[in-house]
Write a structure and sequence with these properties.
homodimer; 17 strands; CV3147-like; CV3147-like fold; seven-stranded antiparallel β-sheet; disordered C terminus; six-stranded mixed β-sheet; alpha+beta
């Protein structure tokens, strides 16, 4: 982000890093990155502003896609849809947006706000409301701080526009999800549009920058600028992110379906390399939410679980996961806002119907290392 | 309607008549009538204005309930919900309502606008946009004249508010229906809010007055004020409405379910009296839509099919129809606006998935009379 702007050259890095933080969800970053690059080419670089630069006079509009990633892969958010959403939130609130923001820093939803910013000539806030991707729209730091969704906007490619004033985040999610299903499974959404003071209080800062740093590593440069071989990338990434490399394996079974606007399912992995002889299970609802190694908990939402191509480190979404693929699973601690009682209630395993207790991923890794586990990250310690 | 106002004393007549025009749907008129009476008692009579009195300066707001009648029977639209809907349409259009209007003159949806008018101190238009009840929100005379739903409002008893700008009536219906299901199956809706000039062009006039005349008959007074015995009411009504008495029978089989926000099903009747030995089938989707006698078509939507208690003439909704009930089925021609190509495309049998051709109810009755049929209305002719 040359001089605090996002140029066309930054997009691939941010898209790749956001796909890691997207933990399998957040929509396809590739499609979004093509739109973002084209719009930056046409309208010029997007100014990036720090969360700390915001004031109460700012009106920050989070904008992104809602729907099952499988659908949004096939449907590109049109420029007219992004502009219609910005126009609708301005009309409904009588407040002119001064900046846009990613609601989540995951996959396509990190790209669409950049595209919208380029299109509308607005700056973008370097921060988001999840620090990752989550499948439901109330799973945001605004909600954790007690803020409701405010006036919401949903627009689709048919030209329909729906302005909501839902009583809370759960209702916003329910109503928007039902409308999105009718709209064909994918729509553009604005929610939690607030003054800059509220965004300063709530946003997880510098996550676009974090995404870019992750992307750089996966594109073959470490933090110091030195070149990385493909087989060094995953460990380089784990080091940069304080992540745990949980498992290397091959997809041996895959259950996946689109229902109620979500991509739901699970994958079974057979260990390869140092993990040969072990099995690993991933459960997902748009995002990877639960990881178990030989039946024992390895990582639990809201901590981040990312699946990477074993050879290249390229992040793999819950949509693009394929039978037979050789992958590495890494996990990393979520932002501390999610590790509070309200954070865990909102996005912990119980909310998703998983009957497990949340345990911090670093603690699960330590326990396994103490039992003599052989995950690559703990190999030296074991 | 003493001196062009609706008083508490008019409510039972209008409610009863609207239940006949509601052809089995439109929500329970009893619940709505209690609300309307209470609000007139508190706020005074509601001024009634003719469709012809409207001018372009008027802003007429159709307001009513959306959802499966089975649900609305159990849930009374709160006053706060009616006021919130009026406030929301004013906020979203920046236009102050000068009158309300029933979107349909069926069941509860004839009562809710009277309640809203009393509450808000607004007059009500003597007319509606269906001349009966229909199950889907785009089945309105505005649509037939080429007008879209405009800015729509949906509010629920949780306090959620959704303002829509759908591209057309079919989208309005789809999105509102999906939201209504999430809201618990019932909500208050505003759509097709237009200036008085458009309402003059589109509304079916004097349908509240028609409902009141029907109600008077069923309450035991003919048009001249003479008293009617219970067993004279149904024929009295048929005479007043140019209706055909299709069948007298007993409910021998009943299939009914609530799905997707609709009450769907069918009823089989065994003939009694002059109709003994014949069978009759009714198909419904919130409203009665198709009537067949011994397999032959007797009446088809958009013509009106009403089921009445055989002894008292009291209209029976698709919800309150019970196994063993003894009923009379009457049918009457719909307004000519529905008998056009666009009218039949919008609310004819094909739209509802019935593989029959629409034939005017009076023609079906004439054909049957010529074949020597024995329906009560054609007995003298036969």
């Amino acid at each position: 982000m040359t001089g605090r702007v996002i140029t066309e050259a930054d997009i691939d890095e941010i898209a790749l890093g956001a796909a890691v933080l997207g933990t399998g969800g957040g929509g396809d970053p590739h499609v979004g990155s093509l739109i973002a690059k084209r719009l930056i080419r046409t309208h010029g670089p997007v100014r990036l502003i720090e969360v700390d630069e915001l004031s109460a006079d700012d009106f920050v509009v989070p904008i992104g896609g809602i729907g099952a990633p499988s659908v949004s892969v096939e449907r590109i958010q049109a420029e007219s849809e992004l502009l219609a959403a910005l126009r609708a939130i301005e009309g409904a609130t009588s407040r002119r947006p001064t900046a846009v923001m990613p609601i989540e820093v995951g996959g396509g939803n990190s790209m669409l706000p950049i595209a919208a910013a380029a299109l509308a000539g607005l700056p973008i806030v370097d921060g988001d409301a999840m620090g990752r991707a989550f499948p439901e729209s109330q799973m945001v730091t605004f909600h954790l701080a007690g803020y409701g969704p405010g006036t919401t906007v949903l627009v689709d490619h048919h030209g329909n526009e729906v302005v909501g004033r839902p009583v809370d985040g759960a209702w916003s999610e329910r109503l928007a999800r039902a409308a999105t299903v009718e709209m064909g499974g994918s729509a553009t959404m604005v929610d939690y549009a607030y003054g800059g003071d509220v965004v300063r209080e709530c946003a997880i800062p510098a996550t676009l920058d974090l995404a870019r740093r992750i992307g750089r590593i996966l594109l073959g440069r470490d933090a110091s600028g030195a070149e990385l071989r493909d087989d060094e990338k995953i460990d380089g990434l784990a080091a940069e992110l304080d992540a745990v490399r949980l498992f290397d394996g091959k997809v041996a079974d895959l259950q996946r379906q689109v229902e109620g606007g979500f991509t739901r399912g699970s994958a079974e992995l057979e260990g390869v390399g140092a993990d040969r002889g072990s099995r690993f299970r991933l459960d997902f609802q748009n995002e990877m939410l639960l990881a178990r190694r030989d039946g024992a908990l390895a990582a639990v939402t809201p901590d981040l679980i990312a699946v990477l191509d074993l050879a290249t480190g390229t992040p793999i979404t819950t949509e693009s996961l394929r039978y037979g693929a050789r992958v590495a699973v890494i996990a990393m601690p979520c932002h501390e806002k999610w590790r509070t009682p309200v954070g865990l209630e909102t996005a912990g395993p119980a909310h998703f119907g998983y009957d497990v207790e949340w345990v911090p991923v670093e603690e699960l890794a330590r326990e396994r290392a103490e039992r003599g586990g052989s995950a690559s990250d703990t190999k030296e310690a074991a």
